[in-house]
Specification:
This protein is elongated. It contains four helices and no strands. Helix 3 packs antiparallel against helix 4. The chain has one domain. With about 130 residues, the protein is mainly α. This is TMM80 protein.
Amino acid sequence: SSQLSSLPLQILLYINGIYYIFYFLATLAMIIYKSQVFSYPDDFLAPDLAVLFLMAILEVPRLYLGFKGNLTEAEAPLGLSLGLTVGSVVLCVYLLLWQTYVLWADVLLNAVLLSAYGLESGLKVTAIAAFVS
């Protein structure tokens, strides 16, 4: 039998897991910085932090299901991971466009993460297609 799992997808999932740790810590540090330096309205600090922590909670099963689905060549976990990626993209776009203060570092971090999500999604769709056929 031939091996259908995707090595590029596996590598990207691994790199994305490491990058997300950096992304989370850097974004959290920037939110703390912005709350100290700028006149950050208290009503908006909690939602921005909530989005960041929700994104972190969503990232764990997204990466786990991606790893599992790719390695076991199962389309269901990979499809669920793809669905969770859509949720992560929405939260990332919120942090890119609609958080209270957006610094150039926010734009850079979110652009890299969105690019990784896009590439990863394309590889997931390709892997699912290979698993189904």
